[in-house]
Design goal:
The protein is α+β, with helices and mostly antiparallel strands. It folds into three domains: 4-50, no CATH class; 68-207 and 303-427, no CATH class; 209-300, no CATH class. The protein is 19% helix and 33% strand. The chain is built from seven helices and 28 strands. The strands form six sheets. It has an eight-stranded antiparallel sheet, covered by helices on one side. Strands 6-28-7-26-27 form a five-stranded antiparallel sheet, covered by helices on one side.
């Protein structure tokens, strides 16, 4: 039998019906009491459980993300779609909205080991994708793992090409709206747009329209923070390039601009500090525009890339408008077209962002040509895809470790990487606020 205090407790929570029943000893027997007790306790425990967030997940940084019904629906569909898409492969889900797939593909009876990361920022809006450089200056290198850890990233893949001797990127880089380096040979890059909680992508051949101008003159700038390719080029260098500008070409000058004013014109390397700019061109061009003593720099992106938060370039294209498109000749990348270890990225209009590495140069995995890589990216559902730097640079970082078979188990030190971080929800500017 249940005492009066318990009876009052049940009355307060469940109404008079059960309480009156409990008071009527004639209607009770021990079995019914036991059944009723279990039933009531079950309801009580269930009510406690339902008051907590469903599918609450704690990430490695102890960030709790309580999902809405819509997010639960998206995640369930994401998981089911991944399992169906990659049936027969090893699949894990290390983070919400992130899948890691390991598979072996055979081409001409030769094995190829492939690692795939497929993620969706619609399923997990706390995932943020951006390029990252190895250090505070462009002329530096680190392994992909160290670049990832520098940015507290959960995923990272080696990025664009770079000069091996210095680490200077050989291609376009823009991070958080700041142009760090310009494109080479109009190669392809990916622009990442962040609109409140929404992330979108645009893949295109990259160019920047750059001009130095004074009250009376203007000078077209051919590139920014890149090694000189032609003696006739006019180049712009900023402090992120390094401590000193390169020496100017023969019969050329470096012009130091600080806070919009011409400070120095020299035929030697010039020290770059703070927000200094150095314009490097022929003696005639520097002497002409330098007469006005006040110089401004304008850098504009093409219309289709305006508003992008980040840009990273490499090349060539692999997939364009859902069709295989490998323009390695146009992008002057014939030397890398053979079978090699590979790194690539792609995306589609359904929100999937796909990161791929292919192991190569070993008996267990022979690598892929660019065309074979393009076929793979299309088969994974990419509407657009591009090649990243591969070979010894190819490395894929996930959840604290390198998951592909990289050179020396870590991959060589590289100039830059594309990283994925999971940020604290408090850092988001919620569109509903």
């Amino acid at each position: 039998m249940l005492n009066s205090e318990v009876n009052d407790y049940y009355r307060s929570y469940f109404g008079s019906y059960f309480a009156d029943y409990l008071k009527n000893k004639e209607q009770q027997d021990s079995k019914l009491n036991l059944i009723l007790f279990i039933f009531i306790i079950s309801i009580f425990l269930a009510s406690i459980g339902l008051s907590k967030p469903i599918f609450a997940k704690t990430d490695p940084n102890l960030i709790k993300t309580a999902n809405t019904g819509q997010e639960i629906y998206l995640y369930k569909n994401f998981k089911e779609n991944i399992e169906n898409k990659y049936a027969g492969s090893y699949i894990s889900f290390p983070y919400q909205g992130v899948a890691h797939i390991k598979k072996i593909k055979y081409i001409n009876s030769k094995p190829i080991k492939i690692n795939i990361i497929e993620l969706n920022t619609k399923v997990n809006p706390y995932l943020k994708i951006k390029p990252q450089i190895a250090s505070d200056k462009l002329n530096s290198k680190r392994t992909v793992r160290k670049i990832a850890q520098r940015d507290q990233a959960i995923i990272a893949i080696n990025g664009g090409f770079f000069k091996p001797s210095t680490g200077v990127p050989l291609g376009a880089l823009m991070i958080d709206g700041e142009v760090l380096s310009g494109p080479i040979y109009n190669r392809v890059g990916i622009a990442i747009f962040e609109d409140d909680n929404n992330t979108s992508f645009k893949m295109s051949n990259i160019y920047f329209d750059m001009t130095a101008y004074s009250n009376n003159h203007s000078l077209k700038i051919d590139n920014i923070n890149q090694p000189r390719m032609l003696s006739t080029y006019t180049l712009l260098y900023t402090s992120i390039w390094g401590e000193y500008s390169p020496p100017p070409p023969k019969n050329g000058y470096n012009m130091l601009v600080r806070n919009g004013k011409v400070i120095k014109i020299s035929a030697n390397p010039v020290k770059i500090e703070g927000n200094d700019l150095v314009i490097q061109s022929s003696k005639e061009k520097i002497s002409t525009i330098g007469k006005d003593k006040e110089i401004n720099i304008k850098i504009e992106l093409p219309d289709e890339l305006k508003g992008a938060s980040h840009i990273i370039g490499a090349g060539p294209y692999l997939v364009k408008d859902s069709e295989i498109y490998v323009d390695y000749k146009e992008q002057k990348l014939q030397a890398i077209s053979g079978k090699n270890p590979r790194s690539a990225i792609g995306y589609n209009s359904e929100g999937a962002f796909i990161i791929v590495t292919v192991d190569g140069r070993e008996k267990a995995s022979v690598g892929m040509t660019l065309y074979e890589l393009a076929k793979l990216m299309k088969s994974l559902g990419c509407e657009y895809a591009m090649n990243f730097d591969g070979g010894s640079s190819s490395a894929l970082y996930l959840n604290g470790k390198i998951v592909n078979n990289a050179v020396n188990s870590e991959g060589i030190p590289v100039s830059n990487a594309l990283v994925v971080s999971q940020i604290n929800p408090d850092e988001l500017q919620l569109s509903s606020i």
